[in-house]
Structures are given as structure tokens and as C-alpha cells.
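Subject: for your reference before the review

Hello V.,

The reviewers asked for a structural picture of the protein, and I figured it would be easier to keep everything in one thread rather than splitting it across files. Below is the amino acid sequence we used in the manuscript, unchanged from the supplementary table.
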Amino acid sequence: MVVCVTMKKDSNRPTEPRRASTVILIREEGGELQVFLLKRSGGSGSFPGNYVFPGGTVDPGDGNAELWEAHVDMDPKEVSRRLGGGLSEEEVFAFGVAVIREIFEEAGVLLAYRSKQTKGDLDRVCERRMSTTGLHKDWAQELVVSEGWTLAFTMLARWAHWITPELMPYRFDTRFFMTFMPQGQECVSDTRETTQGIWISPENGLAGNLRGEIPLSPPALITLQELLHYSDIKDLKKEAQSRSWGEARLPRLIPLSEGSVILQPWDPMRHLEFEIDPNTLSESVLPVGAPFSRVWYHEGVWKPIGC
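And here is what came back from the structure prediction:
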């Protein structure tokens, strides 16, 4: 059966994607490059049951540059130079504060410090996070203003700019940051929005996805594929230091009778109308490491496929 692909707009779906921040958290363990992934709960509105990077939507208070610029470890010009690139000052702070807030809320990693910090300081903040009541809405502002913490913007690097495809029920305009695991801390999932967290090498993560054991969201799948090109953490840190946001990545979603296919921006057919035969897709699944520009959603797993 051959399906003719057409793109139809659903007026009930949001047209403007919400701003969001995500962080690719990296460490080296036993000489192996590893990334931290969280499994979303089955009730999540975005990629339920998939493994993703820590992150979430930007809150209104995240972009209060006048407040935050006194509580980050870079002056405003340096913030714009290192993390900007097409973003206003308000946007840079909004995405940067959001990603620091989200990585602590979801993974328990605090990219902040006090001038005279003791181990007990970090323990107290972590205990607050894991209490029955959890963190209140303005916890980050309270942390820097009332308790004297400084947000470590110097630990953030730019990696990619993703925009969710049209036709998906939830759309986000997301900045993907990269950071490296701070010493003396541990990742602990929140058990609310996510059910578990894992450290895994890019190769093993991609292999687990193909087996259906570690179902990855499409951006996570693409990112792990990109990380295969770095032999160690030294090479990756060098890349992260000079990397820009690059062009926004806006994939194209193609619904099928069962499942769907997403064409990445570099796919040669990205802007053309063409036909897909769903019956041949299982034969087009590619092995780990093979370059790809399409992913196919089948039986709960996004799999890389050939053109």
C-alpha cells in the first residue's frame, strides 16, 4: 500500500510553540563518555514513556534579567557573548535560568554555588527538593536572593535549537544546552514527571532504543547520534566551548495510517510532496551509527530509517 503524504493544519492545535530549555548532562566514567537520560511518566503530554534529557518550559519569572544578572557568575555582556547569538538579553536569561531550574527539579543537579559553601548547604537544598511538599514555585529566586547562591552560567554551553514539528499536539521552541556533571553531586530523578534516570553511553543508548528497551525521543536520538563523533570528554568540551546555536531545527512530521515519520531539516525531501510505503519501513531501519535523516514511530519506538 502506498500512501500519498499531505500536510493538513489542525486548527485546534497550538500554532506558537512554547519556549523551553533542555540540558545534555555529560560525564566520563571508566574512560567512557556517558549522558544522563530521564524516562518520562506514561501520563506525560510530551513523549510519554520516552527517555529524554532533563528540561521543561520557561516560566515567566525566568526572563527577569534585571533580577538575575546580579546573581549569575558572568557579567551581562559575557552572558550574551557566550550564550546569546540571536537572542535578546531577556531571552538569554530566560533560557539559562530555566535550564538551571529544571535540571535541579528533574535530576537533582544544582548548577549554583555559595562563596563560602559547605557540604551541608547542598544537602539542605536537596532535602527540600525530595520532601513531601517538594520545591515551591519561586524556589530559585529565593535561593539566590535570600540565601546568597550564585547561578553557574559558566557551566552552560550552547548545543542546538529545536522547534517541535507542526501537527504534534504539544509544540516547543527549545534551546538544548550542554553541561558536565559537577563533582560531589549525584543525579536523582524527581519520581513525579519522570520515573527513573540512567547514565549511558551514546552507543549503548542508541542500541537500547533499537531493541525497544530505552525508547528515545527524536531529539535525544539525534543528539546521541551526534555524540558518537566524540572520542572522549576532552574533545566534547572543546566543541562545546565554541559551539553556536546554529540554525533552528524544525523537522517535518508525516502522519501515517499507523505511526508516523519525522523528516529532519537536512532530509533531501524535507520540502517536497512524495509517497511513503509503510510496508517497507521495517526493512529501512538502520543500525547504530549509520547516518540518517528520518525517524519512524512504530510500536512505541522512534527508529532511524533510510530514505
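For the response letter, the relevant points are probably these. Residues 1-11 have pLDDT under 50 and may be disordered. The two ends are 17 Å apart (CA to CA).

Happy to draft the paragraph if you're swamped.

O.
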